[in-house]
Structures are given as structure tokens and as C-alpha cells.
Predict the structure.
Amino acid sequence: MIDKMLPYLLSGISVGGQYALIAVGYTMVYGILRLINFAHGDIFTAAGFFMVYIAAALPVPLAIPLVVILTVLLGVTVERVAYKPLRSAPRMSVMISAIGVSYLLQNLMWYVTGGLAKQYPVIPWISDSVTIGSATTKMVTLITPVLTILLVLALVTIIQKTKIGMAMRAVSKDFETAQLMGIKINSVISTTFVIGSLLAAVGSVLYFSNYTSVTPTVGAMPGLKAFVAAVFGGIGSIPGAVIGAFIIGICENIIKALGYTTFSDAFTFALLIVILLFKPTGLFGEKTSEKV
Amino acid sequence: MKRILALVMVFAMMSMAAVAMADTVKIGVFEPASGDNGAGGKQEVIGIEYANSLVPTVEVGGKTYDVELVIVDNQSATDKAVSAAQELVDAGVSIVLGSYGSGVSMAGGEVFADAEVPAIACSATNPGVTSLCDYYWRVCFLDPFQGTVMANFAMDEFGAKTAYVLSQLGDDYTTGLATYFAKAFESMGGTVINEQFTEGTSDYTAYLNNAVNGGADVIFSPTSTTVASLLINQAASMNIAMPILAGDTWESSVILDAAKGTNLTICMSTFFDENDGNAVAAEFVQGFKAWLNANPDKKTNNGGNDIVAAVSALGYDAYMVAIEAIKAADSIDSVAIAEALPSVVTNGVTGSISFDEIGDANKDMAYIKKANTETVAFDFVKTQSVAELAE
């Protein structure tokens, strides 16, 4: 039994790790701006395309940092151009702007790449096959959860121990008051987008090393599921997003193992509805107490 | 003086426009250039373009008409296909060629039927394309035949008892072909494990694990090439030993690139083989290769090499059938062409083409090929006809 389940668990943990890296980006932006950044999945896809084109010209060890830098630049640019001018606008306007950016990026990528699937470059070592017990898989499957947890621990340390982290926590508690206390709100928000995009870039390297073809709409599904994971764990909470992502990744694969392959996606979204019905703030969500 | 000059110029322009209008017949090319089937669609288009370069004019009513190709991209998506089809109708095409992919053809079919414009599918194999639409004809074989061929091949060649059949939920081509394969395989006493994935799935390891754990001897996965490239890659990293079989879409350089250097056994059925003996085919292959090598951008659309894909051959044949139909109708009116089309008989690259009452070509031969992972080419395995299957 264990022998048979092992391959499913492995891919579940790996998929969960990839969702986690995207989900952290969603949850952080929500925590600070109360905005669901719908363009996040497309930034993840863009990172994939950056790698395809850069790796064609440069060796992989040079290409990876360059891809991360470009992705971060893209994330910050999106914030500056599409969200910052709407800082005092109603929240709905910013959300619509986010949806617009998402479609803009998708169609830009469609236009630039011609809409055909591009083969992701092979990254040495992490694309190698390994055998564990009864399962043969890629090295990246094993690296993903470890790297995810390390990155998230580092992130939590930054938020708990550093000055910018303290500023972030203050902003997420109360936007206006933080501003009155002299916190430079724009630099805090930019930092949030830098971290979110950086994790999305790392997530994209791991994801596409596993699933090697990049298309303009490839980020939609993982983006959506990472969003569900963020809501599941309690949007705004980083550990919540990570745990939610792992639960969704593992459950999806167990459902496939049980033979209900057709319903594995339906399950993810049914879970979202159930959580919203019974625990609207998610597993680790902050309790909102309305003050009169 | 100025006024006279202006009048003369307007007159000249009008007459020029009239000349241009009168001497052109438009043929619509309804193919995906992007999306999951974009790679295949492009190969079909170059087949049509090559045919157009050989026969750029057609004689109607004693007058020579230039043939103009109106090419649209249906993006491999059934929702986009309808507007792409409408675009062709609005452009005033007399006949339509394509599409690669059955789902988009069926979606576009309604638009063509409403506008009474005949369409010839090059490589859409789902029976519904022609049976559900009175204005659709096709030049290739059908999925019930293709599915039976591959089921026989799985049993005879690999001694398979259990087959794992994987298809994409809601996609007419893959679910149709998977069903016909499963039916044929079960009727011969085999066991079938049927599973489906949703559009946009990237992780196929769980499906492949299900195939291994279910004790399957062979995998049949008639998917788009985009899915195939992911599936092959993951199967290779999992060391899947059982053969993977598929339908006509897999005869693509995308598959060869994905399978390169792996230990996988990958076979598919297709419409045509480059080394086919007949004279028409030999001439086509030679001319087409020379044309590809002379036109770098066409070669890029072919996947960067000069291997002749079956869909290019079908695109060529469909164009030639369309030209014959226009000649037979002796008109560029779409309704007249639709009336003349059923009785057209041509000797094409992919064999002789004539239509039955539903609008399907009477074709009874499939070519089975194997992806050679070392030479990165398709090796011809065998041909299979309906008559052989009946025995």
C-alpha cells in the first residue's frame, strides 16, 4: 500500500510546494493592500518565458538570477503602473485593474511568443531522475518542498525580526495609522511586491523544471489553486498559505490515486466553497472584530 | 481641369477595383496558429500554401481567377473558432479549408452552414464534423477506424491485455478517439482503464502512476501535442516501460523533441508516409521539401526541419479538391461549389479521394509510425487497412 501511495505523495508534496511559493505572493499582497493580485499567476508565467529566452543565450547559472531580477522588476512595475495610482480609489477599482493587468500580460505573452508551447530549458542536476523506494521521479520533486520551507522560514524571520518587517506588520494592521507614524508606505508596498515576485520566480523555475512546457495561459491553473490555498490557510497569513498549499497539493494527488481523476480540480474548488461557508477567515485567518 | 482629373482618377480607381474584385476567388484557411494545436495547424497551413504556390489560379467560365488565401487563427479554442469562422464568412470566401482539430471544426461548422459556405476538413477525424454539418466534407479517415487500428496494433504488436486510456475532458477529438479505441479493444477481449484530465493540467505523474498500478500493458493517449510533450517528459523521468500509443496528432516534431534520448516506445497512426510508393506522393514530397528549404519562414512553421508531416499532405490535398470543386461548379458562388463538391474525385497525395453521402473521404488506409528516439525521426512500422482488420 505504502509502495503504491509513495509516488502520489511525492508529487503531491512537490506540487504543494510550488503552490505554496505562489500562494505566499497572494497572501502578502492581500495582507498589506487588501488586494487580490490576479496578475500574480501571469507574473509566474512570464518568469517561465524569461527563462526560455534567456537560457537560449546565456548559461543556466547566469540565467537564473537574471530571470529572478526581471520577474521582480515586472512585479514592481505592475504595482507602480496599475495599482499605485489607485491607492485612494475604492478597493473594487484596484481589483478590476488587477484583472486587466492579468489579461494584458497574458495577451502580450500570446503576441510575443506566437501562442505556441515553448520547451523549458533543462537545468542540470535538478532535472535528473532519482529513485526512492518504488517511485522514480525528478530531483526537483524532492528539492521543492525543502526549498519552499527554507524560503518561507527566511521570510518569516524577515517579517518578525527586521525593521522593514516590522513596518510591514504595522501597515497590514492599520494602513492609515502606519502612515501617520512615519512609515514610508510606498517602499513597504514595493518590498512586498519584490518578495512576492521573487518567490514566484523561484516557484516558476521549480514548476517548469517539472512540467517543461510554457504557454501564455499555463499560470492560470496553478495561480488559481495557489489562491484557493491562500484563502484556505487564511488569506493574509503566511504559514496558513503554505500549509493550505501543501494540503491542497497532497489531497489532489490522493484523489487522483483513488481513481477520481476527473474530479481532482472540482475538489479544490469545492474545498474553497466549504471553507468559506464554515470558516470564512480560513485556517489561520485573523479574526476581524467590527468596532462601532 | 482639376475636377476632370479627379473624375478620371476616381473612374480609374473604380475600374481597377472592379478588375481586382472580379478576378479573385477567396479560399478561407481556418486553422489554429496558436494554442494547444498551433504547431499542427501551422503545418497544415504550409501544405495549403504550397498547393497554392503550384496552382495559384483557377479557370471559371473561360476566365482566369487568382486564388487568394484568407488565413485566420482559431487559437485551438472552440469559443474563438466561432468568431474566426465568422471572419472568413465576412471576408466573402467561396470555400473553407480546415481545421486541424475536430472541436474547432465542429464549432465553426455551424457558422459555415448558416452562411452556406462549404468547408473541407483536412485532418479533423471526429465523425461529428461531417455528420452533424451539411456543409462539411473531409479528406482524411475517421476516428472509429483509427481507434480500431490502434487497438489491433496494441494487441498484435505488444500482446496487450490491459490498456490505460487517457483523454482530455470536453475535447471532442481526444474523447472521441479514446472511446473508439476502448470499444474496439474491449470487443477483442481486452480490459480498459479509462481516465480523463481537465484542460490546463500540467502534472501527469498521478495518471501515469495509475497506469502502472492498474497493471496496464499499454497507454493510449490521443492528446494535443502540448499535452503530449508534458506527458512524454514525465513518463521518461518515471522510466515508464510500457509503450505509449496515440492518434494522428502525435506525428509532430514536438513529439520527437520531447522523446529525444529517452527509452520510451511511442507509436501513432497517421494519414501518410513520406516514403510512400505512389507517384503523386513522391512528386509532392520532393517538391514540398525543396519549397520548404527555399522559404526559411515556412520551414520554421514546419518545426525547423523538412520532414513532411501528414497534415501538410492533407492540406495540399484539400486545396486541390477545392480547386477541382470550383472548376466542376464553374462558378465562384459558394452554394454552387457546395453542390459540385460531393461528386469531385481526385488522385491526391494521401491516396484517391472521393466522398460518401455524409461527406467523408472513402479512405481505408492508416500508416503506423514509431518515434525513433535516437535519430529523432519517425520510423515507418506498417500500414493497416479496413479489409485487413475484418479478417
